[in-house]
Amino acid sequence: MKLICDLASYKLTPVFLLLIVFFGILAGCVAIQPTGAILIETQGNRSFGGVSVGDPATRVFACDHGYVDWQIPLDARALPLLFVHASSKRTWETTFDGRREGFIPIFLRRGFATYSTDLPRTGQAGQACAPVNYDPENEWSIQTSFTSWRYGLWLPGQTEPTFYPGVQFPTDNPVALDEFFRIQTPEFDGPENEEVETNALAVLMEEIGPSIMLTHSSTGIRGWIAAIKSDHVAAIVSYEPGDFVYPEGELPLPIPMASGAEQSVGREVPMQDFLKLTRFPIQIVWGDYIPTEIDPAHVGPLATLDFRRRNVLKAQLMVDAINRHGGDAQNLVLPNIGIEGNAHFPMLETNNVQIADMLSEFLAAKGLDRR
Question: Is 82 exposed, middle or buried (0-12, 13-18, 19+ CB in 10 A)?
Fold first, then answer.
């Protein structure tokens, strides 16, 4: 990482210059991304998992496979990063403004092999064994995406969005906003899709070996379930996951909602399956603008705010259960550690190098960055 600093107010003593070189942590400094070539030893893409249905004598159809792109840098670290996106493969690629690197190139520079997936029935793996229903009328509008993913508010009756103060988004860049509105690709979140997707993920991990899995949003639950199905998960880092699991017989009480109703905290899995989540480190990460208290106003178009509040609580309950059974999990809310302004896509936002640094620190602390 490089730094741009306003040094006019500093006396550039030799000691101060050493601080710049060796620590790179100064008031008035802005992290910028490195430039130059990334040296790749091998790269490629292919399908993984899947089935074939039909009669070889008449018609066979190959379907329900995933698709993966991989890049392996020179002198790669021992454990690769396995990127599992939710609504968009771009989650891990290039920032909204198109000017800065996302997590895949950032971590290639840091020596990690990367595997980026489209799960079955999505993206480049869209060849499904069963019918899927895509109806634009049922998909999120740009107003819903803007509010639900917490970049600000765009409520009914308003003709343009209002960004939250301090949000880590290039708010003066209309191209970046348009790119954000076009990030989503169709995803299907039914139980059958989850089963098909996690089966394929388990196959991929069997093929590539122990991996550090990064999940986001609706693929959070895919990560937990895939880790139950595979012995090749070295760690999971999940950004704002949407669903959670607990040991059978230990499901916490429902959580009150802003509407006055209650919501289940997640699902129970057999104890022997849940204990598989205690075998490796887990970090769950949340951004900013998430309420900590119930607000009766957070219904209708603002219900997403209460949804995120409840999810932070659910995540803490799952982390507590993992640690209670001997695991190593943490639930991290970025503003609580002084990192403010992030929304639902911290890996794509204007401080994404800082978010990447936090991930690097976690991997180093857990001994997962060895070569």
Answer: buried
